[in-house]
């Protein structure tokens, strides 16, 4: 900060001894042209520039204590000890006078409403233009001062008792601020709010203190910081119009400068006595002070720019107490609040030095991050340093004052000192390693030195006769630029000391940090850039150049630093014609993309391929980089055509006509035609071809390119026609295919040749398939003869009939057809067909899985007859997997066991179907009467005998025992019914049935404990009568012969199982059975003759050889001659228990004696070739029995036919799906 006295005036004492020359109040007019001065009983007008007296007015009888201008400048007011206030017009005419009871102490105009407050010892008054009366309010203490907030809504009044009263614009009470016990002599609102709605109020009290308050709405307030100790009593405070600074005048006879936070910035000037009033001129930095000895003085305050620059980092002082660090390239800014007056700043690399009045602080940032702006306090030197300027280094501080340079470490210790021959005019750090940095120093005697911090002896660079104002050295330290005190620029060679260049009217100079030969200098509002020996280029630019890096020039103008991108195109093009390397260096500083392209093109034309590629790489021009590579390869092969290269360059630049003319002129018409063809300019291509005799070249290629152009433009029909015309069928098919025009593709297919256009035909087939057209795709594949693809097509489109027909002639694809066919059938709920297909696909595991799935679903859905059917099919499948049933392997044994288990389950589910229908559909049994009921009764008996403790999915034992009990009671099988009810008592029964079953169980006890003989089964092998229920199995309890069931009505059949002797071959067995028995021979010839003794007492003795038998009262009938019956009885005698049951074994004679119609054979060799045949004889031939050849299940012929008539399906009809 610098101050100078702009003007000074001493008012002499008045001639009237009743008055003195004490100046109680001064103020500037709002326009800043005039000054009002209150002296004695008069008001004087002075010129604000010269302090020359202009006029005066007199309207009071006693001393005038205060004057004030309205904001609009149309009125001013004066207050006097005579207790009156006079309002004057700007033409100095009195407009209004009003009185108070006490002398007037202070006046202030509202800045918005132009209302006036007048403060006296006992009250204050408010006058407004729209009111004839002055509204007065009492004060609790003598009023001394007042001020309005900048928005005119708040009024502050300072009182003698140390309080500050806060009132609204109408004088209403808001708050009272107890500041001090000493009088409040001056208050002043800051004229700006600075991004807040609160008002800032400065208060000066006669306890030598300054206080700053933030006031919100007039009712709440907070002190900003602590009270500032002044060392004197403040008498007047006046803010600068910007609101950042204020001036305080007081009993110390000095005008001091403070910021709005209350930080002292310095002294403006000293006067001859107490300063009763001070004022700052609007929108300027002129400060007016007045004393009680009649002195008027205007000081001009100059806020000096304190700043530092290193490369793109610029630091400057802001508001005297803050530091702004700005990265001029990234345009990021940070602020450091020092809260003290900043005297000097220096910045170097990662260091920032800030000198305050009593200390010096060094800040630092991360040196590895060039964009880091987070400065942190690093070191502090806590002592007052006297110097004219300072420089910061990596580990040191340089101070200079007068002729002396001092080197201090960061602890404040002086390590080295240089004393120059003359005063130092300029110094600058020029870099270097840490602790070995160098400086360039210019003296006022014209000497320029290099100073290194590790060298005690300065090195003289240049000696000239005029004082140095500014100096800079280029990056390679070979050239020095000097600006002297007369604004002359001199450029020297630092080695030879030779003067290289000279200019006049230069204010500042700076070398480019990235290019040794380039510097910038300013003068007369112009910026000049000089490179090497070239003439300097210039442009209009105010300010001084302080830095130059790359294409950015850093200029300082009106205290503001600006980074400007300066294009280097002018210099660049001067070097482009003669020096590619220098042009490249300049381009690196900053040129346009077109400039880089020009460098690349010129270097390419000159066959400087390396420079050309570097230039094009900078702008990432890939097409020109490719051209460079191609041209360089051609140059190595020595077949690079200069004119062809220039033509290609013109093409790349879009100058096609010029390229065509150049190529044709140099006998390269074919290249021109190719160029136009590639550009899809077919009209121009034809014109060139016709003009230069090339009319028939590349017809097909031109048509092809035209077709591609039509396709790109969306003209697909024309494009496809052109593709066909030039026989590019694949492209034509693609065009039609994308549009879905299958008929056109089919037309192309018809003209394609299988041998020449195999790929195109495949493409046709692909589009046909994508559009779900099986017929067209089939034609394409048939044309190719691609049977495998045809099969895949049928499968993909589920055309199974065609696929299966195709298998007749190509069975090798069976495994590829049947498996997806089976999957499709299964997915479409055609499980039986799917099972057959899986078998044909040689996937028996999947076939079995299908049957198991069908069975499970049938059981879940309570379709038990279907479940029986599927279980029997599953059993047959397992039997079919047996390889040798006579001598089975372990795997065969497993499959045989599975066959028997599933066959038995099929019988169980078939029987359970009748029981389930009785329970779930009682109407069914009612309609069919006793016959169906007897079937159900037999079924339930069969189930009880068969399943016993076994548990099967879906079978409800409650249903079985309930049917057994219910029908047993009905058929008078009371014992069996009682058995059923007892079993039901052990099972969990639904509550709906419980009462009925309990009642029936009680009733059955009243019945005989026996079953009706009609229903008791007789074993046809041992002729024993069996109980209706045998929980050990469905066989005779006496001999163990299994009951052979009729699988329609489930009653027992008169069948006895027998086996031929093992020595008799099966074919012989069949032949013997087929022979008609000899009816005339009562005994076979092979047996001994029979002798019969006479009857005695009813007994008859029969002798067969050595065998003798006795029979009682037997008639001599046909049975006596039945060899099978005799053998059966003999076999029984050899059997010990029922558990040792074996079928009756017969010889040839017995076989021959059997009628073939009475013999039944269960022959399952159509399922398993090695499975043995089982033989049965019908011992009651009158009963018509049938045998299912497929399944080996028996039935009564009439019942079976009756069931067929009713539509009841026989579940054992199929042995496979």
TrEMBL record:
Residues 1075-1099 are annotated as: Disordered. It comes from the Eukaryota. Its main location: other. The keyword Repeat applies. Residues 1080-1091 have a biased composition (Polar residues). InterPro entries: Beta-prop_IFT122_1st, Beta-prop_IFT122_2nd, Ift122/121, TPR_IFT122, WD40/YVTN_repeat-like_dom_sf, WD40_repeat_dom_sf, WD40_rpt, Zn_ribbon_IFT122. Pfam families: Beta-prop_IFT122_1st (PF23381), Beta-prop_IFT122_2nd (PF23377), TPR_IFT122 (PF25295), Zn_ribbon_IFT122 (PF25144). GO terms for cellular component: intraciliary transport particle A; non-motile cilium. Residues 1013-1056 form the IFT122 zinc ribbon domain. WD repeats lie at residues 57-98. It is found in: Cell projection, Cilium. The keyword Cytoplasm does not apply. Gene3D superfamilies: 1.25.40.470, YVTN repeat-like/Quinoprotein amine dehydrogenase. Residues 22-192, 197-297 form the IFT122 first beta-propeller domain. Keywords: Cell projection, Cilium, Repeat, WD repeat. Residues 307-560 form the IFT122 second beta-propeller domain. GO terms for biological process: intraciliary retrograde transport; non-motile cilium assembly; protein localization to cilium. Residues 569-958 form the Intraflagellar transport protein 122 homolog TPR domain. PANTHER family: INTRAFLAGELLAR TRANSPORT PROTEIN 122 HOMOLOG, WD REPEAT DOMAIN-RELATED. This is Intraflagellar transport protein 122 homolog.
């Amino acid at each position: 900060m610098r101050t100078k006295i702009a003007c000074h005036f001493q008012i002499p004492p008045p001639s009237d001894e009743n008055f003195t020359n004490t100046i109680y109040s001064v103020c500037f007019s709002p326009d800043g042209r005039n000054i009002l001065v209150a002296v004695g009983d008069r008001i004087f007008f002075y010129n604000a520039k010269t302090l020359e007296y202009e006029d005066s007015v007199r309207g009071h009888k006693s001393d005038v204590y205060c004057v004030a201008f309205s904001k609009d400048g149309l009125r001013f007011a004066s207050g006097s000890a005579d207790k009156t206030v006079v309002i004057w017009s700007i033409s100095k005419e009195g407009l209004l006078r009003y009185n108070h009871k006490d002398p007037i102490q202070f006046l202030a105009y509202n800045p918005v409403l132009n209302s006036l407050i007048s403060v006296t010892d006992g009250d204050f008054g408010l006058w407004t233009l729209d009111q004839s009366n002055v509204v007065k309010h009492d004060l609790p203490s003598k009023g001394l001062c007042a001020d309005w907030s900048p928005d005119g809504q708040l009024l502050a009044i300072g009182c003698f008792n140390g309080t500050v009263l806060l009132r609204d614009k109408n004088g209403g009470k808001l708050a009272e601020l107890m500041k001090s016990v000493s009088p409040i002599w001056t208050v002043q609102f800051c004229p700006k709010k600075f991004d807040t709605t609160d008002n800032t109020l400065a208060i000066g009290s006669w306890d030598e203190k300054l206080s700053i308050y933030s006031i919100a709405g007039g009712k709440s307030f907070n002190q900003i910081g602590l009270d500032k100790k002044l060392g004197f009593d403040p008498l007047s405070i006046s803010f600068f119009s910007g609101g950042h600074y204020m001036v305080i005048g007081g009993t110390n006879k000095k005008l001091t400068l403070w910021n709005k936070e209350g930080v002292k910035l310095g002294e403006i000037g000293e006067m001859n006595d107490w300063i009763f009033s001070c004022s700052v001129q609007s929108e300027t930095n002129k400060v007016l002070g007045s004393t009680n000895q009649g002195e008027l003085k205007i000081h001009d305050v100059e806020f000096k720019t304190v700043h530092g620059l290193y490369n793109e980092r610029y630091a400057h002082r802001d508001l005297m107490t803050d530091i702004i660090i700005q990265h001029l390239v990234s345009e990021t800014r940070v602020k450091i609040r020092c809260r003290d007056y900043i005297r000097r700043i220096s910045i170097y690399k990662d260091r920032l030095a800030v000198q305050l009045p009593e200390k010096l602080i060094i800040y630092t940032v991360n040196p590895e991050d060039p964009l880091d702006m987070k400065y942190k306090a690093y070191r502090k030197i806590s002592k007052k340093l006297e110097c004219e300027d300072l420089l910061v280094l990596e580990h040191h501080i340089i101070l200079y004052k007068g002729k002396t340079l001092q080197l201090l470490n960061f602890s404040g210790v002086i390590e080295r000192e240089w004393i120059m021959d003359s005063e130092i005019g300029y110094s600058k750090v020029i870099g270097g390693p840490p602790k070995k940095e160098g400086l360039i120093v210019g003296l006022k005697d014209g000497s320029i030195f290099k100073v290194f911090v590790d060298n005690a002896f300065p090195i003289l660079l240049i000696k000239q006769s005029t004082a140095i104002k500014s100096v800079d050295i280029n990056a390679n330290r070979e050239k020095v630029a000097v600006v002297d005190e007369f604004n002359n620029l001199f450029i020297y060679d630092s080695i030879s000391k030779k003067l290289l260049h000279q200019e006049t009217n230069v204010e500042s100079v700076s070398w480019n940090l990235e290019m040794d030969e380039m510097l910038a200098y300013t003068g007369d509002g112009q910026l000049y850039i000089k490179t090497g020996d070239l003439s300097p280029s210039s442009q209009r630019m105010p300010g001084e150049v302080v830095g130059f890096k790359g294409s950015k020039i850093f200029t300082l103008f009106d205290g503001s630093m600006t980074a400007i991108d300066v294009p280097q195109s002018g210099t660049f093009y001067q070097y482009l014609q003669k020096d590619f390397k220098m042009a490249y260096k300049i381009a690196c500083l900053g040129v346009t993309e077109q400039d880089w392209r020009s460098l690349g093109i010129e270097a390419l034309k000159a066959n400087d391929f390396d420079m050309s590629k570097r230039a094009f790489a900078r702008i990432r021009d890939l097409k020109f980089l490719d051209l460079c590579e191609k041209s360089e390869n051609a140059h190595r092969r020595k077949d690079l055509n200069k004119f062809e290269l220039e033509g290609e360059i013109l093409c790349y630049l879009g100058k096609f006509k010029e390229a065509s003319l150049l190529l044709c002129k140099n006998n390269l018409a074919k290249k021109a035609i190719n160029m136009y063809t590639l550009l899809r300019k077919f009209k121009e291509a034809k014109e060139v071809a016709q003009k230069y005799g090339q009319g028939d070249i590349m017809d097909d290629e031109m048509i092809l390119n035209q077709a591609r152009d039509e396709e790109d433009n969306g003209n697909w029909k024309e494009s496809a026609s052109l593709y066909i015309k030039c026989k590019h069928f694949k492209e034509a098919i693609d065009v039609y295919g994308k549009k879905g025009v299958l008929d056109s593709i089919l037309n192309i297919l018809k003209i394609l040749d299988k041998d020449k256009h195999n790929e195109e035909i495949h493409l046709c087939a692909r589009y046909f398939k994508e559009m779900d057209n099986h017929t067209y795709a089939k034609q394409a594949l048939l044309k190719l003869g691609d049977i495998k693809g045809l099969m895949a097509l049928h499968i993909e489109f589920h055309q199974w009939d065609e696929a299966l027909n195709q298998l007749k002639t190509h069975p090798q694809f069976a495994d590829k057809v049947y498996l997806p066919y089976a999957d499709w059938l299964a997915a479409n709920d055609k499980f039986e067909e799917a099972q057959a297909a899986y078998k044909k696909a040689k996937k028996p595991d999947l076939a079995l899985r299908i049957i198991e799935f069908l069975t499970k679903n049938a059981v879940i859905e309570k379709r038990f007859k279907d479940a029986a059917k599927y279980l029997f099919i599953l059993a047959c499948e397992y039997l079919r997997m047996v390889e040798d049933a006579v001598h089975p392997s372990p795997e065969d044994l497993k499959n045989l066991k599975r066959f028997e288990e599933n066959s038995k389950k099929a019988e169980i589910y078939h029987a359970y179907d009748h029981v389930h229908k009785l329970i779930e559909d009682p109407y069914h049994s009612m309609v069919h009467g006793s016959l169906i009921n007897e079937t159900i009764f037999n079924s339930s008996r069969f189930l009880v005998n068969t399943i016993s403790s076994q548990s099967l999915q879906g079978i409800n034992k409650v249903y079985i025992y309930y049917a057994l009990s219910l029908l047993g009671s009905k058929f008078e099988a009371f014992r069996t019914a009682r058995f059923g009810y007892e079993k039901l008592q052990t099972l969990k029964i639904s509550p709906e049935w419980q009462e009925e079953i309990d009642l029936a169980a009680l009733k059955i006890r009243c019945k005989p404990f026996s079953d009706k003989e009609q229903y008791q089964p007789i074993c046809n092998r041992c002729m024993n009568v069996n109980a209706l229920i045998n929980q050990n199995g469905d066989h005779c309890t006496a001999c163990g012969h299994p009951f052979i069931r009729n699988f329609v009505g489930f009653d027992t059949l008169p069948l006895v199982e027998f086996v031929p002797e093992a020595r008799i071959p099966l074919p012989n067995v069949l032949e013997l059975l087929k022979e008609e028995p000899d009816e005339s021979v009562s005994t076979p010839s092979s047996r001994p003759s029979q002798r019969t003794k006479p009857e005695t007492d009813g007994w008859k003795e029969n002798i067969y050889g050595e065998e003798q038998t006795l029979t009682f009262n037997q008639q001599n009938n046909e049975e006596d001659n039945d060899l099978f019956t005799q053998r059966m009885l003999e076999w029984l005698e050899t059997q010990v228990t029922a558990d040792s049951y074996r079928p009756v074994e017969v010889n040839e004679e017995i076989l021959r004696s059997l009628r073939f119609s009475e013999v039944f054979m269960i022959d399952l060799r159509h399922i398993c070739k090695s499975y043995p045949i089982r033989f049965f004889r019908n011992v009651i031939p009158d009963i018509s029995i049938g045998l299912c050849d497929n399944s080996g299940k028996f039935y009564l012929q009439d019942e079976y036919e009756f069931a067929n008539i009713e539509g009841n399906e026989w579940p054992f009809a199929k042995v496979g799906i």
